[in-house]
Amino acid sequence: MGSFNDGIDELIITSGAQQVMDLAAKSLCNERDTVICESPSFIGSLNTFRSYNINLCGVSMDNDGINIDLLEKALNTKKNVRFIYVIPNFQNPSGITLSLKKRKAIYELAVKYNVLILEDNPYGDLRFYGENIPNIKSFDKTGHVIYAGTFSKIISPGLRVGFAIAPKDIITKMVVCKQGQDVHTNVLAQLIIDNFLEKCDIKLHLSNLQKLYKEKAIYMEQFMERYFNGNITYNKIEGGLFVWCKIQIGIDIIDFCKAALEKKVCIIPGNTFMVDESEHTNAFRVTYSTPSKEQIEKGVKILGEIAKI
Ligand SMILES: Cc1ncc(COP(=O)(O)O)c(C=O)c1O
């Protein structure tokens, strides 16, 4: 029979998922070690890794996630790879979801090359269509996966409560590293989350969130269809909060984003999410999380007009 403490040594509560990236880098990497990541990837994580002078190796993505051949090539050629960083569901910024086949392939490569996987999953609960795909952590029989979760996207980003699940020896290192940062995650914030989970029907809450964001995502796609006229293409939205768009006309992405901002539409140029920010891209990221239906229509219309010029 298991004891009360079973599994607790493999868990740390953090100040948001962002702190998991920081603790992983701080506890596992030396300067000039390599972290392999999807390209594009979440700027907050990339900047955290950069702040520890880690070499980033970006691997491009297909429609079903990171390219496995290129990932293996990177594992073969890069020195001192400490971990592979992936965002498996509705990736920020591309919106891409990693297929089950690729999740298994990444895990097998991690075991073969004996490197860790940092699986960052803030958006997995925000699925609008289809079936959930098992996390990589669920195949982990060998202690190669660090799983990062957060309440930021489903309860409140301001409370700053996230967590990591990882083998005990890694959690022990993270605990020491966290002591030098904030000692522990704010207790009042943890109590608020605990109270929410205790008193509210989390399944109902998640289904309400999915309904709300799905409705906005549908508006976004409808307006993109109506106003983009093929001048801008976009990835189909299956969940999460982001749409990755590509301009099909000859206009510099930074100029495009500046022109949008002048009309009070804030979008993020794709190069911000690249390992090499000087890499040419015609992509930008938009989100539908906070704007109303009217604002989504207005914003998309403005982007479509700029793309016609
Ligand atoms: C992929 C990814 N990881 C981590 C985070 C940070 O989440 P948290 O607010 O829990 O620190 C974000 C936030 O946007 C994100 O998109």
Plain-language structure description:
This protein is globular. The strands form 2 sheets. An 8-stranded mixed sheet has the order 1-8-7-6-5-2-3-4, with helices on both faces. Strands 9-10-12-11 form a 4-stranded antiparallel sheet. The chain is of the alpha/beta class and 309 residues long. The protein is 40% helix and 18% strand. β3 and β4 form a beta hairpin. The N and C termini lie far apart (69 Å). The mean pLDDT is 96. The chain has helices spanning 16-28, 43-51, 68-77, 100-112, 168-179, 187-199, 202-228, 253-262, 293-308; strands at 11-14, 34-39, 55-62, 65-66, 81-86, 116-120, 145-150, 162-165, 232-234, 242-247, 268-269, 283-287. It binds pyridoxal-5'-phosphate (PLP). Residues 16-18, 42, 44-45, 87, 92, 120, 122, 150, 152, 157, 162 line the site of pyridoxal-5'-phosphate. Pyridoxal-5'-phosphate is lined by residues 16-18, 42, 44-45, 87, 92, 120, 122, 150, 152, 157, 162.
